[in-house]
Amino acid sequence: MNVRIEPDRRAMSTAAAAHAAGSIRRAIDRRGKARIVAATGASQLDFLAALTATPGVDWPHVELFHLDEYAGLPESHPASFRRYLRENLIEPTRLGKYHFLDGEGNLDEVRARVGRTLAEEDVDVMFAGIGENGHLAFNDPPADFETTEPYIVVRLDEACRRQQVGEGWFPRLEDVPDTAISMSVQQMLKAREMLIVVPDARKAAAVKATLEGKIGPAVPASILRSHPNVTLYLDEAAASLLDPATRKKLSVNS
């Protein structure tokens, strides 16, 4: 795993966006299009703003897949990930094609339909974050590392739901849905390249567990260490709990 530590959130987002734009361009040059998966949430806002402002990306040749979505939440809700992607990625770029997870539909039918389309070809690059509890997408601990289904229906743990309240998406814990559709861990790992963008001190404990702990379902993001092409972008706040030996061992660039 390559780890990049930048001085602050802005520098981290700019560096990650430049990397992401290059990956998209290379995929389009190689096969005429790029398939991407984009994450949502507060941690990704600056990164997506920098990415959509980057010139020279042929967005009409980009196909977007949805990473996860709450069950039962309308797209009009401020916390809807469909709304988030539309406002922060699709509308600014007018990218070519996108596949939403409709959390208001029949969850099994939705995940099967989008999963079939996703499985038709490889994902060139995935953008994701790490949750305060170490989750990847909505795969909370202990995550299912075994299922090969592209999307699964999951129950959200309290730590994950509290994070959503803390980030301001919902006013109260009881307002946060407890069920969601999530891309599975094994499906995420099928991406040719993964860019993981993680700012803020509140993620520092999860970053430390991801990089220094045992690889296992108790820390879902730890599985990233098994992927051959991952770059983890951190700001200094998110990296603040890492041991110096970790930085050296992982060939950290900072």
Largest sheet composition? 7 strands, parallel
Assign an overall shape: globular
Strand order across the largest sheet? 1-10-9-6-2-3-5
Number of helices: 8
Unreliable residue stretches: none
Classification by helices and strands? alpha/beta
Order of helices and strands: EHEHEEHEHEEHEHEHEH
Question: What is the count of β-strands?
Answer: 10
Helix content: 25-40%
End-to-end distance: 14 Å
**Class in CATH?**
Alpha Beta
Q: What does the average pLDDT come to?
A: 96
Q: Beta-sheet strand percentage?
A: 15-25%
What is the fold named in CATH at topology level? Rossmann fold
Write down the domain tally: 1
Rg is: 17 Å
Compose a concise summary of this entry:
The chain is an alpha/beta fold. Helices cover 33% and strands 19% of the residues.
Features:
Rossmann fold, 8 helices, 10 strands, alpha/beta, 254 residues, 7-stranded parallel beta sheet
Write the layout of secondary structure elements.
Blueprint: E1 2-6, H1 9-31, E2 34-38, H2 45-52, E3 62-66, E4 68-70, H3 81-93, E5 97-99, H4 107-118, E6 125-128, E7 151-155, H5 158-166, E8 179-183, H6 185-188, E9 193-198, H7 204-212, E10 230-235, H8 244-249
Parallel strand pairs: 1-10, 2-3, 2-6, 3-5, 6-9, 9-10
Antiparallel strand pairs: 4-8, 7-8
